[in-house]
Amino acid sequence: MTKDENFFEKKMDRREFLKKAGIGGAGLALGLSGASAFFANKEHGSKQIADGQEEISFYGKHQAGITTPMQKNIYFVVLDLRTTDKNELIQLFKDWTDYSQKLVNGELVKKDGSNALLPPSDTGETVGLNPYRLTLTFGVSASFLTKLGLEKKRPKLFRDLPAFPKEQLREQYTGGDIVIQACADDEQVAFHAVRNLIRKGRIKVTMKWSQSGFAAIGDRMETPRNLFGFKDGTANVTTEKDFDKVVWADSNDWMKNGSYMAVRRIIMHLETWDRTNLQEQENTFGRYKESGAPFGKQNEFDEVDLSLLPVDSHVRLAKEVDLPILRRSYSYSDGIDPKTGQFDAGLLFIAFQKDPDSFVKIQTNLGADDKMNEYVTHIGSGLFACFGGVKEGGYIGQDLFE
Ligand code: HEM
């Protein structure tokens, strides 16, 4: 291959490419401030969504991808450590910081020299694509702290999840030391980001489990519906003030400005659900399917009157615990379950909260009595401490290591 024929020889980063194509420009760097609704992001028109032009800064007080209005796609991966050498891991987190900041800006992870006999540093599948609001969110599990001899730094509230009623966890979807959540309004952008981060981490980490997913975000004016056809996320908090109350850890340790992520891979038995009459479906949640309004009310965001909801309905059981969490879940569909011949589909449930105990108490209440249990099975689980945001010049997880 001659120099000119080599695609990457041109060293054209994505931003340059887009400028040349006349569709890039400076992009719109989105801060995370402002009290825009979590899903209904009316400040930004649909044109930017179509162009994928908006960027979300990697640096900030908090990591992006937690209170960021949801994107259309997720690529979620849990990694196992292959080394417990602290310095090697600090280097990895520094490398990931460098890569992440470029990825969310829509640039190549690294520009190569002219040696065509080397593999390109960037795998290349996003050349010509905008950043599509890519966010990268990093966290570690309790086993990460143990393996690195950082047990002493384990915050008191970072306890292991207990066993929950009716769960049927599978080894292949549990455990792991590091989580990376990539969300973007384009599936290939999200996948590319994880692929390149893992490529950089080879030898130090291996993949334990991963899940891609999607959310019906549309033009961000409506709450997305899950695969049961119900609006999902209605009760989420939406303002900075509430995020402080619900999401961001209060502690003054390395989790300052961070959040705890609870993850569940939940199979949804769609065929059973689809045989269920509408009244039963609505009784399952205590909300009307079309409008999303709670029983006895007209509109989606009307206040829930618990006494009007069936005692075993999902919303009643979740709400009566009275401990808010921020849900940021994605649907998945993974082909056909070879044992049943039915859809292998469900929800990659993700919730952020300042104290994992809120999730634990809600799931304990739901696990026992939720009417929805007839239609779902929890098979994967994880709890991760997602660091506070990265300052320019700093690196992911710095406060934990120093
Ligand atoms: C496949 C699994 C699940 C489905 C399909 C589902 C669906 C829904 C739907 C449709 C709503 C009502 C609208 C809304 O406020 O978002 C809701 C509310 C809620 N869900 Fe779930 N959910 C699932 C799993 C979970 C899990 C595992 C938890 C936590 C342990 C949870 C916690 C909540 C909470 C806290 C609310 C809000 C209650 C309120 O304050 O009104 N959900 N869910």
Question: Could you walk me through the main structural features you see in this protein, from its secondary elements to its overall organization?
Answer:
This protein is α+β, with helices and mostly antiparallel strands and 402 residues long. The protein has one domain. Helices cover 25% and strands 20% of the residues. It has eleven helices and eleven strands. The strands form two sheets. Strands 3, 4, 5, 6, 7, 8, 9, 10 and 11 form a nine-stranded antiparallel sheet that branches. It has a two-stranded parallel sheet with strand order 1-2. It is globular and about 65 Å long. It starts with 13 loop residues before the first helix and ends with a helix. Residues 1-37 and 40-44 have low confidence and may be disordered. The structure holds protoporphyrin IX containing FE. The site of protoporphyrin IX containing FE has 26 residues, from strand 7, helix 9, strand 10 and helix 10. One of its GO terms (molecular function) is heme binding. Its cofactor is heme b. Keywords: Heme, Iron, Lyase, Metal-binding, Oxidoreductase, Peroxidase, Signal. It is found in: Cell envelope.
Brief synopsis:
The protein is of the alpha+beta class and 402 residues long. The protein is built from eleven helices and eleven strands. The strands form two sheets. Strands 3, 4, 5, 6, 7, 8, 9, 10 and 11 form a nine-stranded antiparallel sheet that branches.
**Ligand list:** protoporphyrin IX containing FE
Q: Which value, in Å, is the CA radius of gyration?
A: 21 Å
Report the major sheet.
9 strands, antiparallel
- First CA to last CA: what distance? 47 Å
The geometry reads as: globular
Count of DSSP helices? 11
Report the mean per-residue pLDDT as an integer. Answer: 90
Tally of strands: 11
Identify low-pLDDT runs: 1-37, 40-44
Share of helix among residues? Answer: 10-25%
